[in-house]
Design brief:
This is WxL domain-containing protein. Keywords: Signal. The protein is mainly beta and about 200 residues long. It has two domains: about 1-50, no CATH class; about 70-195, Immunoglobulin-like. Helix content is about 5%, strand content about 35%. It is built from one helix and 14 strands, in the order αββββββββββββββ. The chain has a six-stranded antiparallel β-sheet, with no helix packed on it. Strands 3-6-12 form a three-stranded antiparallel β-sheet, with no helix packed on it. A three-stranded antiparallel β-sheet has the order 11-7-14, with no helix packed on it. It is elongated and about 85 Å long.
């Protein structure tokens, strides 16, 4: 009985793959209980991956490294700007697309802001109207992103790729409106694959 309990509690299936042993996390459990008249026999499904893992296929089993599910396209550079009709006090931006090609949902988080330049005239800048990244011309400190802040969750691709957007809003106080300034900073991101139901992998 003790051996049976230990076997039921184990949450992995071991398999030989290209000469090595890999542990694959099981998606769900089965339970056998002799008191219920189920007898002493059952079965479990064994999934394998031979060759290159296809992270675009929703039917694929989970790979040994869950991060292999990450497959997201996003812009290397983004933009914000002030508007003429607000006398260059309102900050807006285009909507920058993030595209998930993965067979699993992917959570996108902001982990920190760095390398800010020429931000003096930016009073307030926020991401997706969720949280600020610049306040009074200074970047928000790293402590505000511990833990990281969620930007959005990209659903799995299913039949088509999933898309979400990043944008900026805020306000500025330009000193000399006839002259342009070109502020910039780095926004650091983290991508976290989720299970089929959109929950963190255990």
């Amino acid at each position: 009985m003790k051996k049976m309990k230990k076997a039921a509690a184990a949450c992995f299936t071991t398999m030989a793959l290209l000469g090595g042993v890999v542990q694959v996390l099981a998606d769900e459990y089965r339970h056998i209980n002799g008191n219920d008249g189920q007898g002493n026999e059952s079965s479990l499904q064994v999934d394998g991956i031979i060759g290159e893992f296809d992270n675009t296929d929703v039917s694929q089993p989970n790979p040994p490294d869950i991060n292999q599910w990450i497959n997201v396209t996003f812009p290397a550079r983004t933009l914000f700007y002030t508007t003429r009709w607000s006398d260059h006090r309102e900050i807006m931006s285009p909507e920058h697309e993030f595209v998930n090609h993965s067979g699993r949902p992917v959570q996108v988080l902001v982990t920190r802001v760095s390398e800010a330049r020429d931000m003096e005239e930016v009073d307030y800048l926020e991401v997706n109207k969720l949280f600020p990244v610049i306040i009074d011309g200074k970047i928000v400190p790293d402590s505000e992103f511990d833990p990281p802040k969620e930007l959005f969750v990209l659903t799995d691709r299913s039949d088509i790729d999933s898309v979400n957007t990043l944008f900026f809003t805020g306000n500025a106080t330009p000193v000399e409106k006839e002259y342009n300034m070109y502020p910039e900073f780095e926004l650091h991101l983290k991508f976290v694959p989720l299970d089929r139901d959109g929950n963190p992998f255990s």
